[in-house]
Amino acid sequence: MLFKSDQHPYQWSGQVGNRLLADLVPATIGATEPYLFSLSSGTYVGVHIPDEPPGPLRLVMRNVATGEAVAFGEDDDANHHVRPMILGGQQVKWECLCPSGVRWHGGTDFASATPVVIHTMTLPYLTFEGP
Question: Any residues with CB less than 8 A from the CB of 39 and at least 6 apart, and which?
Fold first, then answer.
């Protein structure tokens, strides 16, 4: 099961960011027993996206193993600093839906983009690098 709330990052059952590692949740038709799940706290990752003209942009963090979006950050000023909340302990690739077009951190597409390890602590601002 995939969970998301305003105060927590996307996470699969088992408190992981990768659906392939998620805990299986048994479901029985007609059952009334609730599934009890505690959401894990995330970490904010600051990312600066340089060399972009003013205008709205969206940073998408994608899990390296699945390619699925696991965090988003948006910005609409000239500074282009975003702070998406993400579940630590996973590798992601960054995709920028930028005013100048789609960019990938360290590459030109998902396959060639540079993986970034997200730790469980708050990180300083990182810089998006790419074509």
Answer: 3, 5, 8, 11, 15
